[in-house]
Write a structure and sequence with these properties.
- The complex is a heterodimer of chains A (200) and B (451).
- In chain A, α6 packs antiparallel against α7.
- A two-stranded antiparallel ribbon of chain A has the order 1-2.
- Chain A has 200 residues and is mainly alpha-helical.
- Chain A contains eight helices and four strands.
- Chain B folds into four domains: 136 residues, Dna Ligase, domain 1, CATH 3.30.1490.20; 86 residues, 2-Layer Sandwich (D-amino Acid Aminotransferase, Chain A, domain 1); 62 residues, no CATH class; 127 residues, Glucose Oxidase, domain 1 (3-Layer(bba) Sandwich), CATH 3.50.30.
- Helix content of chain B is 36%, strand content 24%.
- In chain B, α8 runs antiparallel to α9 and α9 packs across α14.
- In chain B, 53% of the residues are buried.
- The chains are: A mainly alpha (200), B alpha+beta (451).
- Chains A and B meet through α5, β3, β4, α6 and α8 of A and α5, α10, α11, α13 and β18 of B.
- Chain B: It comes from Lentzea cavernae.
- Chain B: This is Pyruvate, phosphate dikinase.
């Protein structure tokens, strides 16, 4: 049973092959064959109508016990929790930056950033780059506790590189944006550490 | 002169020295309004601390001596820079006024000037990094002292419409920090009439401050055992249709001239006058923070799966405690989103804007169940029709009337004044008409005079 693919669905949510492949670094055909095995085991289901894959309740439970066992075997829960605290310091700043990329204040009015002011965009992009540098330190600490977190480094770097090359949606506005990957990382940490989101 | 000043009506220093918060408190003193006794540590002290990493010589003793005169058993220690940096810096409540404890609280607030997030905020907003923050130390007042205590925030006009009616939120039996955090269940400000003395005092204060600013105002307040205290004040900073209505009403009252009214409304505000809005008289069942403008009407779905399923039959509003990556496809299928948690820079807000979908976040009294949600104490079943306004943050049952250009009568008047000033009565766009008048008045097309 492949925990990597199972865990990808836990962090990304119900989705198609492309996002699982991007999350795991596997090819889409490798992902598909893993998913079929997981479906046979009753851990995931395929929705023909929406074309995506989802965890079943037992899949969710299997992922939770798998990641828990992984941390217990390695004895790195305290280290991961400590690095998670570092992540939580960066998180509001990253969300501020995404917001600044989408919206800006002109004459005291918050308006959509239409990206016509290249100096403003350059300033926000430079701040993203600076945050990314600090994020890499946190990801290294996460990866030292649980190696699979290393995957986030090339993913975030690639999103930033594309944005710097002019693909403006790659920071906050696409399905493979810096923000989307960051949100998956956040969900991954909550899932791995077994921290429930605020209920309601 | 030292590093510490007593807050009083005669304190002459400008905001650069006192910070914006203390400067506002001095104004409240001048207007004879109730402010808890306090002192301010000036921005110079912060700059010295940031340069050396230690509190300047004599500051701890000077502060302790000054605080002793307040006669308080507990004080609050709050940041307050010359330029507003909301939520970026530390505030320490319930501090014992001993020298050591005060010094630690002061260091913590000073240090928070330089967190990476605060530095990023300043770079984004073009605020110099060397300003430093002042620190206000005041006698604690307790909104949670007893059943006749509470706290809230209030505007002198409705910031959504500009209408002249006190507007805000109140939280009975709680501290002000819980109002601002959005964690607790707040009530509309008018509920404060259950405490008539406080309600009357607050309304009088709003009138007096507005007369001083000649502009709408915002205050934060706490009342303790039936006694009102004001903790912060600033101009209202209205935008869009609310800015237009406020400026024309103030001119009609004679509080400002028509020329000033034209300078109060920047051409950028006019774009927002045209954003669709739920009519102000619609009966809101809940209220949060509008973070992506526009109106969305649809059937309630409480999970991403449900949103995808229901969207086949018509528009859906996704209602969630907060969002996780799994909600993205639900939001993609929905026409709008409501969340219990979150602020303008939350995951939900960022994702909603990336898809251009109206969004209301931070609805404190929202509880999401398995097949219904509770909004403002009312149970709303999955599949029920709701309408949300991503500007004002209101949630309404059913499909209320939606207006575009709600301030039309006011806007028409303002633009007539603009044409009188410019002398140009040719058919042009609204922003051009306003900009031409502002050019004649010397206001240019840039920042509004209200700032």
């Amino acid at each position: 049973m492949n925990l990597v693919v199972l865990h990808a669905l836990r962090c990304v949510g119900s989705t198609g092959l492309t996002r699982v492949a991007s999350f795991t670094g596997l090819t889409e055909s490798e992902v598909e064959s893993e998913l079929i095995d997981l479906a046979v085991a009753g851990l995931v289901t395929h929705d023909r109508h929406f074309g995506g894959w989802s965890l079943t309740e037992s899949g969710r439970a299997a992922d939770a016990s798998g990641t828990k066992a992984e941390l217990e075997t390695a004895g790195t829960r305290p280290a991961l929790a400590e690095a998670f605290d570092e992540f939580l310091v960066l998180n509001p700043e990253l969300l501020d930056l995404c917001t600044a990329w989408q919206m800006r204040s002109v004459d005291g009015v918050t308006t959509v950033n239409d990206h016509s002011d290249t100096a403003y965009d350059a300033r926000v992009l430079a701040l993203f780059t600076d945050l990314h540098t600090r994020a890499l330190v946190v990801i290294a600490a996460l990866a030292a506790a649980a190696p699979r977190f290393a995957r986030y480094e090339p993913r975030l770097t690639s999103a930033l590189t594309r944005a710097r090359a002019g693909e403006l949606a790659c920071l906050a506005d696409s399905m493979d944006s810096f923000h989307t990957i960051w949100a998956e990382l956040h969900e991954d940490l909550l899932a791995t550490l077994g921290i429930a989101r605020w209920g309601g | 002169m030292g590093w510490v000043r007593h807050l009083s009506a005669t304190l002459p220093d400008p905001p650069e020295v006192l910070g914006g918060k203390a400067h506002g408190l001095v104004l409240l003193h001048r207007l004879g309004l109730p402010v808890p006794a306090g002192v301010v540590v000036i921005t110079d002290a912060c700059r010295a601390f940031l340069a050396d990493g230690t509190l300047p010589d004599g500051l701890t003793d000077e502060l302790a001596t000054a605080v002793e005169t307040l006669g308080a058993s507990m004080v609050s220690v709050r940041s307050g820079a010359a330029v507003s940096m909301p939520g970026m810096m530390d505030t320490v409540l319930n501090v014992r006024p001993t020298p050591g404890t005060l010094a630690e609280a002061l260091k913590s607030v000073f240090s928070s000037w330089n967190t990476p997030r605060a530095r990023t905020y300043r770079t984004l907003h073009g605020i110099p990094h060397d300003l430093g923050t002042a620190v206000v130390v005041q006698r604690m007042v307790f909104g949670d002292r007893d059943s006749r205590s509470g706290s809230g925030v209030a505007f002198s006009h409705d910031p959504n419409t500009g209408e002249k009616v006190p507007f805000g939120e109140v939280l009975f039996g709680h501290q002000g920090s819980e109002v601002v955090s959005g964690r607790a269940l707040t009530l509309p400000l008018r509920e404060l009439d259950r405490e008539p003395g406080v309600w009357q005092g607050l309304q009088d204060a709003l009138v007096r401050v507005e007369q001083h600013y000649r502009d709408a105002c915002y205050v934060e307040f706490t009342y303790e055992s039936g006694t009102l205290w004001l903790l912060q004040v600033r101009p209202g900073k209205f935008t869009g249709a609310a800015a237009v209505r406020l400026a024309t009403d103030l001119a009609d009252e004679g509080a400002i001239t028509r020329a000033e009214a034209l300078l109060r409304v920047a051409p950028h505000h006019l774009q927002h006058v045209r954003t669709p809005r739920i009519t102000p008289d619609a009966d809101a069942i809940a209220r949060g923070l509008g973070v992506c403008p526009g109106v969305a009407a649809g059937r309630v779905a409480v999970t991403a799966d449900e949103a995808v399923r229901l969207a086949v039959h018509g528009p859906v509003v996704l209602v969630r405690p907060e969002t996780s990556p799994d909600d993205i496809r639900g939001l993609a299928a929905a026409t709008g989103i409501v969340t219990a948690r979150g602020g303008p820079a939350s995951h939900a807000a960022v994702v909603a804007r990336s898809m251009g979908k109206p969004a209301v976040v931070g609805v404190a009294d929202l509880v999401v169940g398995a097949d219904s949600v509770t909004l403002g104490g009312r149970e709303v079943e999955v599949g029920a029709m709701v309408t949300i306004d991503g500007t004002s943050g209101v949630v309404v049952l059913g499909t209320p009337p939606v207006v575009t250009g709600g301030a039309d009568a006011h806007l028409r008047r303002l633009l007539e004044w603009a044409d009188e000033v410019s002398g140009d009565r040719s058919g042009r766009g609204e922003a051009e008409r306003l900009a031409a008048a502002r050019a004649v008045l010397g206001g240019g097309t840039g920042r509004s005079a209200a700032e």
